[in-house]
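Progress against Task 2.4 (sequence-to-structure conversion) is shown through the following example record, which the project officer requested during the mid-term review.
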Amino acid sequence: MSFDFEGTAAAEGRQVDHPRKQLSDEAFRWLMDDPRGRLLVWERLSDAGLFRTSFNTDPCATAFAEGRRDMALRDLNRIQRLCPTLWARMMVEAAARDAAFGGMVGSG
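C-alpha cells generated for the chain above:
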C-alpha cells in the first residue's frame, strides 16, 4: 500500500516542502547568516538591477533587464520568506560599505 502525502496535502491546501527545497532554503539561510554571504547576495541583487529601472529605448534590452531583475526579485522574496530580519542588516552593511568605498559595491 502506498500513501500519497503530497496529494493529501494539496487537497487540504497545505504546501508540501520537498527535501530539495528544504536543503536549498537551509543553504540560503546559512549564506545570509554570514556577513560575507550577505555581501554576495547584495552584489547579486545590485548587479541584477533590483535597485534601478530596467527601461531602455530598445525593447529587447528592456526585456533582458527585466529578466535579470525578475531573478533578483525572486531572491528578495526568498530573503523576506526565510530571514526577513537579515534584510535590514544587509542594507545597513551595504550602506557602511558604500560610505567606506565611495559608491555602491556590486553596482558594476
